[in-house]
Amino acid sequence: MLTPDQARDRVQDAIARARKAGADAADAVISSGESLSVSVRLGAVEDVGRAEHEELGLRVFVGQRSASISATDLAPASLDMLADRAVTMAREAPEDEWAGLAPMERLLKGNVPDLDLDDETLGDPAELKARALEAEDAARAVPGVTNSEGGSAGASRSIWALATSHGFSGAYAATSHGISASVLAGQTGAMERDYAHHSARHVHHLEPAVEVGRRAGERAVARVNPGSVRSGAMPVVFDPRVGAGLIGNLTGAISGSAITRKTSFLLDAMGTQIFAPGIRIVDDPHRPHGLRSRPFDGEGLPVSPLAIVEDGMLETWLLDSASARQLGLEPTGHASRGIGGAPGVAVSNFYMENGHVPVETLIGDIDYGVYVTDLFGQGINLVTGDYSRGAAGFLIERGEITRPVSEITIAGTLQAMLRALTPASDLEFRYGINVPTFRIEGMTVASS
């Protein structure tokens, strides 16, 4: 696998070949990596996998025309051919007045920040097998667990590099380690499934496999013999693992492309109150060993922590250079690149800050409501804000979580849901998007 320095040299070389082929400007990215995984079921190994990849993407500009191309053959002759083809394609592409590289004066200068994302460890199949078995064994040992979908453990290490023809080049390495388990509880014909997983940049930050497995087993057993709920408007409490998805919808609604295309329910919401006062949502790309940390964005701009929502007010869109130019604004450092195509936008470590009440207090005054731990279906319209999802979880009665419920539907509009949201004080950084437990008043709940 390439080193960061080698990857940076490769993308700079690709830029030079593009300019020689006739490009007025260009940028190039390279992704190189390797991964290892082991999956087990019922105490036996089911699969051991190893993968390696190395791919380069090149984007060229000829005037206001552009084209993108990618390749896995990085031999010099192949890169010359790649550059020639990209320039030929760009000359035939339609003009785009908004396309182009990021503003030169905004590029990251100096050294790339070290965010401690790489522990240089991949492990070996024996280590991963032991973790996967330990997780599954712990899950199956929970009383009431009757079958298993398996346990798994994996590790990967990747190199990412970006260079532009107007002065930026940077590269960094990152590792990722994970453990998961999924089991079933209950009898045939009435089984309930649940899972648990944990991921970390550094292997020594992983939760013990026993804890991951035990949590999977306990979650599955708690869901056995679900009932239904009476229909009506009521408080709904979102567990953090599903609440993160709801807040993630916000990122799509405030992306530059959604605003320029006028396809967002928040189109006119900049500078207005979209949450209750006191709520703060932050994007922090500099979080040490964060799951989505990055030292620069997909166009070579510096990144830094940014409040997206402050005291309930929407403070900014998420803008790459093209959408910023179209809106007459400045890019926000949220450009995100894949190997092919133009940049889009993405958040990094995106989170809602803690509220001021414990979970017990948040639930304690609910006479009748639902605690949601699982969501399914795709009933979200980011143009109108309409929201309707299938759900499962637990009934809340007289301030207590009582019995499991399933096959229910929760519905509302995202506009009203965000304004009616109250966060608890139990925030943990476990995922790419993190939220505390939160409560939303007045959602429509019905049995399916």
Automatic annotation (TrEMBL):
Instruction: Cite the Metalloprotease TldD/E central domain residue spans from the record.
Output: 124-223
**Any idea where the Metalloprotease TldD/E N-terminal domain is?**
26-90
Q: Which InterPro entries match?
A: Metalloprtase-TldD/E_C (IPR045569), Metalloprtase-TldD/E_cen_dom (IPR045570), Metalloprtase-TldD/E_N (IPR002510), PmbA (IPR047657), TldD/PmbA_N (IPR035068), TldD/PmbA_sf (IPR036059)
UniProt cross-references to Pfam families, sorted A to Z: PmbA_TldD_1st (PF01523), PmbA_TldD_2nd (PF19290), PmbA_TldD_3rd (PF19289)
Task: Give the matching Gene3D superfamilies.
Answer: PmbA/TldD superfamily
> Which part of the chain is the Metalloprotease TldD/E C-terminal domain?
231-446
Query: Which ranges form a coiled coil?
Result: none
Report the superkingdom from the record: Bacteria
Cellular-component GO terms for this entry: cytosol
SUPFAM superfamilies for this protein: Putative modulator of DNA gyrase, PmbA/TldD
Q: Extract one GO BP annotation from the record.
A: proteolysis
Q: Which GO terms describe its molecular function?
A: metallopeptidase activity
Q: Which family does it belong to?
A: Belongs to the peptidase U62 family.
Q: What is this protein called?
A: Modulator protein
The top of its lineage is:
Bacteria, Pseudomonadati, Pseudomonadota, Alphaproteobacteria, Sphingomonadales
